[in-house]
Structures are given as C-alpha cells and as structure tokens.
Design brief:
heterodimer, A: alpha/beta, 2 domains, six-stranded mixed beta sheet, four-stranded antiparallel beta sheet, 8 helices, 24% strand, B: 253 residues, mainly alpha, 0% strand, globular
C-alpha cells in the first residue's frame, strides 16, 4: 500500500488576491504508519485531511492511493470526525453496521462484525442504546468502531478527541494506540495538541499557516506503548513545542490586536512590584 | 384526572354565565348564547338521528382523500425543489405566497372547474395543505446536518443511497411536523369548503344550525370539530412525533 500526496494546493479568491490554504503539499506515507498533522488552527491541516478523504477537492495536485487517484470519498479511507457524526435515528449497533449495509453485506455477517468491533472499543453493553444516551467519549468509541468495520487500510482522524475532557481523552489515546497496534492501519491524525501528536505518532508533521505548508517533520522514535508521563517523551515534546510556538504566535498575531505579545502576556507582572522589601 | 376536573370547572363557569346573562339579567337572547346543557342535549339528538355520524363520515372521507393527495403532491414538489436549485430560487417565493393564501380563496376557482360537488371540496383541501407540506419537506431536507452526509459518503454511500439512508431519516422530525401542519390546514380548508358548498358533512350541519337559529346545534358541531381535530392531532401525529423525539433524545428538558 502507498498513499502519496502530490503537489496538493488549495486556494480561493478573496476580493483582490488569491489566498492559499494549502500550498504545494508533498507527502509519502508508508503502510502502517501513524502520521500526525500538527498545527495551530487555520493552518489547513483539516483541509488537507479532507482532501485525502475526498470530501474536498484540491485546486491543484492529487492524492494517489494504491496507484489510483482519489476522486471522491469512499470506504477505502475511513474517516473519524471531531463530532462523532453518528446517526441519531439509529441504535448504536445499526450505526456501526451502516458502512457494511451500504456495501451490501448480509445481515448476520454485519451483526457479527459490528459486535466484534464494539467489543474492541468495550461498548457491547450499549449496543441497543440510542446515540443521545451516550457520553462524548462513548460516542467517539462507537464512531471508531464504525470506521474500523470498513476494513480500510487508511484511517483518517480529524481531531477526534478534541472535544473530550482530558481524562477521557487520555484513555482513548491509549486505546487508539493499542487498536492501531492490533489492526495495523495507516493512520493520519489531525490535531492541535502537541502531547497527543508526540504520544501517538511515528512522524509528526508540523504545519504552518498562511500559506499552509509542512514546515517541519519530526520522527518520533520512542518505544511503544508510550505513556504521557515517560521522561523521554517529555524531552521530545519540548523539541516539538519550540517549533510550534513560533507558529502559534504567527497565527495569533494575525487574529489579535497589535499590542499582543506572547512573551509579555505569559509573564505575570504586577503594577506594584514588591520584591520583598518589607520583610 | 386533573384535566377532567379542569374541564368540568370550565363547563360549570359556562353554565353560571349562561344562567346569569340569559336567565337572570337578560343581557343576551336565548338564541345568541347556548347553555352547556342544551348543547349536550343537541349533541345526543344529533348522534341519535345519525346526522352527526353521516356528517363525520362524509367529512372524514373528503379530508382523507384530499390529504393523501396533498401529501403526495407536497412531498413530490418538495423533493423536486430541493433537487433543482433553479426551481428553488424561482419557485420558493411563489410557494410561500401560495401557502399564505387562504385556501378558501380557491373555492370559486374550484367550483368553476369542477362544479358544486365533492371534487371541488377535495381540491380546496388538497391545495390548502400541499404547499405547507412541500415547504416542510424542503426545509427539512435543507437543514440536515451536512456532517451526516459527509460521514455517509466516507462510508461509501452515494446518490440515492444517501437520500434513502441518511437524508430522509435525518429530516423525518421536520417532515412529520410539516405533515401535521398540513393536516391542520387541510382540516380548516375542509370546514370552510363544507360550510360554503356542501350538501353533507360537518360544516353543512353547522350551517343548518345557523339557518334554524339553533345556537346549540352550532355549538355542538363546533365541539365535535374541536374533539376530532384534537384526537387526530394527539393520537396520530402526536404519537409519531413523540416516538421520534424520544429516539433522537429531543424530549429531554
């Protein structure tokens, strides 16, 4: 398997000039690799993922999966969104079966496979529940199970854990690591969370905004399973963080007032500096 | 239980006002203010001589035929409008206008077309609710969360499969609301049509009451209309709506 992104550019016309959301992105992703696209909001990382998914058309360039140019969305590239995108009119099990139903699999086979993947995400107990009865974390588990049933080689994840509380997020990150290990899928994972990227990825691609390019690539060569509290992970984290800080500052400067400054605003100063003179 | 007590009290107040206003003070004439007892008696009489049964049967037959037509036409129009943007842009305003046009305005037109008969009334019913249904279908489909469609596409669905498996079920709550609204439009159109041009039906019995200066009969028929309207609303549409809202988790307050 190979997934190649070749010269992908996404631009649109504003009033007077062209604005580049993505500019000449080139990528080659190996089978079974876990890639994280990391960048501040507005750097075009989600757009890139959507282009790979076939949900958004690139202005120029192409995405090639197994020697075929990607033209539209399809079950060979499963996608997980930030919101679970589960269907509220169906029960959990029917949601998980949806992709297989579209593919025309027979009923018993669907059920069996759906239960297998629901078991993998530990939610068989809730198979007959309605979507609104689930918590945010449970919804993402179901969405993951649904994506896995497609048996795609590629799994695209668009900030899937961004809306979850940090404990739930941590649990799901560990489980995703495990499931990826077991299923050997090629994962492209979009996030703005540096820890998440370093924890999960084989390669972290740091993206930069205006125009969206891949600014730097980090190979994370840490042993698995990784844990956030590992000291070597913290070390790598600091490295990536330095790179991203400049980016965050750049994006923020474009959005905030002119007097904003990352250095100034991260120091707590007081108008009455008391340096212990009255001790 | 509470509800029954509430209505009993309401009827009691009505009776007291009647006693005071008509019998004691003489503000109103007997033929302008009915008493609940007289209305009840008339109701029993109308039921006993089958006037009411025949009228309800005739009205129900009309509204069911008319409503089925309007549901079919309305759904078709709605789906076509959603599908073709050009039609939506140009027809949208016209349909809104047609929907706000009181359906009874179509009666003269219908009589010229079909003559004074069943078809004219059914036409008025159909046209009275078609556009409300068409608009509900259109807005229901337009308001489907695009995320659902994207998700379905990534799972391999396309074209009709998306329509059938995603867009239709996703817009069902809005469609049911539209069908319910269509029903109430149809009901109004039916009564207006029957009062003006029918030889049988609830509206006609109401008009006979007026012609005989029998306010009890007028009132009795109005009560029947109210009860019938409520029954259909609660038993049919209310139940469907409730089950859908429950499924979607919209009924949690």
């Amino acid at each position: 398997m190979s997934l190649i992104v070749e010269g992908v550019t996404k631009s649109f016309m504003s009033k007077h000039h062209k604005i580049y959301t993505l500019s000449d992105i080139n990528l080659e992703i190996k089978k079974g690799e876990f890639i994280c696209l990391l960048g501040p909001s507005g750097c075009g990382k989600s757009t890139l993922l959507n282009i790979i998914a076939g949900l958004v058309e690139a202005t120029e360039g192409k995405v090639i999966l197994n020697d075929h140019v990607v033209k539209k969305a399809g079950p060979d590239r499963a996608v997980m969104f930030q919101e679970s995108a589960l269907f509220p009119w169906q029960r959990v099990i029917d949601n998980v079966e949806f992709g297989m139903k579209i593919a025309g699999l027979p009923k018993e086979m669907r059920r069996e496979k759906a239960l297998k993947y629901l078991k993998m995400v530990h939610l068989t107990k809730f198979k007959d529940a309605f979507i609104h009865e689930l918590s945010g974390g449970m919804k993402q588990r179901v969405a993951l199970a649904r994506a896995l049933t497609l048996d795609s080689e590629v799994l695209l994840m668009d900030e899937p854990f961004a809306a979850l509380d940090s404990q739930t997020k941590l649990i799901l990150q560990m489980e995703l690591q495990k499931i990826w290990w077991e299923t050997k899928k090629t994962v492209i994972f979009v996030t703005h969370n540096i820890e998440e990227a370093v924890l999960l990825a084989d390669r972290v691609l740091v993206m930069s905004a205006g125009p969206g390019i891949i600014k730097k690539e980090f190979k994370i060569q840490l042993a698995r399973p990784r844990q956030l509290e590992n000291i070597d992970l913290t070390y790598v984290l600091a490295d990536v963080m330095k790179e991203l800080k400049e980016e965050v500052e750049k994006v923020a400067k474009a959005e905030y007032d002119n007097d904003w400054n990352i250095e100034k605003d991260s120091i707590l100063s007081h108008s009455d500096p008391d340096l212990g003179s009255n001790l | 239980m509470k509800k029954i007590a509430f209505y009993l009290i309401l009827i009691l107040i009505w009776e007291v006002i009647y006693k005071l206003g008509v019998e004691v003070l003489g503000i109103w004439k007997v033929y302008t203010f009915p008493s609940p007892i007289a209305v009840g008696k008339t109701l029993i009489k109308l039921i006993a001589d089958h006037t009411l049964g025949i009228a309800i049967a005739a009205s129900m037959k009309r509204i069911i035929v008319g409503y089925l037509f309007s549901a079919m036409i309305g759904i078709t129009i709605g789906l076509i409008i959603v599908r073709f943007k050009y039609l939506d842009e140009n027809f949208g305003a016209l349909i809104l206008g047609l929907q706000s046009l009181p359906s009874i305005c179509w009666l003269p037109f219908a009589i010229l077309w079909f003559g004074l008969n069943e078809s004219a009334i059914i036409f008025v019913i159909t046209i009275g609710s078609t556009f409300a249904i068409a608009m509900a279908i259109e807005s229901g489909i337009k308001n489907v969360n695009p995320l659902y469609i994207r998700a379905a596409k990534t799972m391999g669905a396309s074209g009709l499969k998306i329509y059938w498996n995603v867009i239709i079920p996703a817009s069902l709550p809005n469609i049911i609301t539209g069908l319910k609204q269509g029903w109430s439009f149809a009901w109004r159109a039916l009564m207006a049509g029957e009062m003006l041009s029918a030889t049988k039906g609830l509206g006609q019995v109401l008009m006979v009451g007026r012609d005989l200066a029998d306010i009890s009969q007028v009132m009795a028929v109005m009560v029947v209309m109210l009860v019938l309207g409520l029954t259909v609303d609660n038993l049919i549409f209310g139940r469907i709506e409730k089950s859908i809202r429950h499924k979607w988790g919209l009924d949690r307050s």
